[in-house]
Amino acid sequence: MNNIVTENITPAKAKEYLNTVAGNRPISKAFVHSYADTMKRGKWLLNGMCIIFDNEGHLIDGSHRLHAVIEAGIPVRFDVIRGVDPQSFTTYDCGRHRTVGQLLAMQDVKNYNLVASIVVANQNIINSGRLCASNTTIRRGGLDMSNASKYDLYRLDPDGFNEVGFYINRLLSRCKILSGSWAGGLYYYLTHRGGYTEDEVKPFFEDLYSVDTGTIASCNLLRRAITKAALSGQKIKAETLWAFIVKAWNSYITGKELKLLRYSQGQEELPKLIIK
């Protein structure tokens, strides 16, 4: 019979539980660091996702969260279930499951698919500092995340993700100069991880999504480059588009004028976002 309890798991207890894992399981340091950072900021919430042990006492789900407790160095509350069939692990994230968007829809989350994509995009930037999907680190750290991991990330800050989803959806109703996932992931990252306030970030996005020429020169350059490519039937490569976005943002936030928007893939380093 399964036994579910809520425990205050200390770093020492986390180590004890991790020692029960049978076999070696790959661990994403990026996930662990992200979880630990949230724990240290006191933002980790009980979300119904359990630490799971089988009926032989082996840990079969929850390794990343327990490693994060150790990294954070503080006790964290989790629901813990024991007595699960050892073979049940083979059914996790297999077959046809509900998407994260569908899971959010079941909880009446507005813009559920957009919010789910923002969660992943934000994590991609945290993991690798970029959004272009050709990057192997992104594939490993973001696009191949299990639904459980994505849902865990959403539950770290549901209000924040929902608010950004609402805002980006409003921008998309004007025009679709950037995809909602890229715009939302970047907006969330800058305001929640990059150290900027919404008052600092919003003018950039408002100008970029304006239907007429805006007042921010770098946004005009970015909008013009995207529009020109679309009108000519071309598609800007993901890496080039990301470089354009970063260069436009960096110009805006530093106040340094950007006269041209260029990027030579393979001939120059991919620029990095300027954050605080």
What does the main sheet amount to? 4 strands, mixed
Give the spatial strand order of the biggest sheet. 1-4-2-3
- Compute the separation of the termini in Å: 51 Å
% residues in beta strands: 5-15%
Q: What is the N-to-C succession of helices and strands? A: EHHEEHEHHHHHHHHH
Question: Oligomeric status of the shown chains?
Answer: single chain
- Radius of gyration using CA atoms only: 21 Å
Domain module count: 2
Structural class by SSE content: alpha+beta
Descriptive overview:
With 276 residues, this protein is an alpha+beta fold. The chain folds into two domains: 3-91, no CATH class; 100-254, no CATH class. Helices cover 51% and strands 8% of the residues. It has twelve helices and four strands; from the N terminus they run E-H-H-E-E-H-E-H-H-H-H-H-H-H-H-H. The chain has a four-stranded mixed sheet with strand order 1-4-2-3. The protein is elongated. Mean pLDDT is 85; it is low at 134-143.
Any descriptors?
276 residues, alpha+beta, 2 domains, four-stranded mixed sheet, 12 helices
Describe what is shown at a glance.
The chain is α+β, with helices and mostly antiparallel strands and 276 residues long.
Reconstruct the topology from this structure.
Blueprint: E1 3-9, H1 11-18, H2 29-40, E2 51-54, E3 59-61, H3 63-72, E4 76-84, H4 100-105, H5 112-128, H6 136-143, H7 147-156, H8 158-172, H9 180-192, H10 198-208, H11 217-231, H12 238-254
Parallel strand pairs: 2-4
Antiparallel strand pairs: 1-4, 2-3
